[in-house]
Specification:
With 201 residues, the protein is of the alpha/beta class. The protein has one domain: Pyruvate-ferredoxin Oxidoreductase, domain 3, CATH 3.40.920. It contains seven helices and six strands. Strands 2-3-1-4-5-6 form a six-stranded mixed beta sheet, sandwiched between helices. Strand 4, helix 3 and strand 5 form a beta-alpha-beta unit.
Length: 201
Amino acid sequence: MTDKQKKKKAKKEVIITGFGGQGIIMAGRIIGMSAALGDHMHSVFTQSYGPESRGGACSAQVIISDAQIHYPYVMRPDILICMSQGGYDKFISEIKQEGILLIERDLVRPGALKRNFFSIPATRMAEDLGRKMMANIIMVGFCVSVTKVISKDAALDSVAKSVPKGTEEVNIRAFNKGYDYGLAILKGRGKKAAGQTGVTG
């Protein structure tokens, strides 16, 4: 790996967007906390609310770096996580060309988007676990498995410390559900790519 490649990998900018009540801010806080406390990186977390807290637009921004962070706001996200159509419409033009886009499958319609993206029915999966409010934790698990922006162990520790007391176990289950879903998608895409190139194994 060249020095230039190392430098490129050293900093990641993340935006998580949705509407109030989805736990967007908590998801951002968990990612930032995981990076700082678990993975021993520098991280900065900022949040933004629309005119209403519940139901209004909101977003969380996280910058993760192995060097000191001098500017706390995301300029061009490497990772964009959209849990609402409004958030998607607002931020889709800002993601880097090589950035990773994750969407809530049932709430975001990307239309004729000419880029690769990953989708998960996080809200439906949370409802299956009996708690619709855990869609954010499922999305964090999905993000960790697909992007590797933070380590799984650090994320699990932060989830356990961030959720209401008594709900740790079910939230960890929600995280693992999202994480495993991401791994399954990556595995499926790997098999498809291998089939297209005639590679086996």
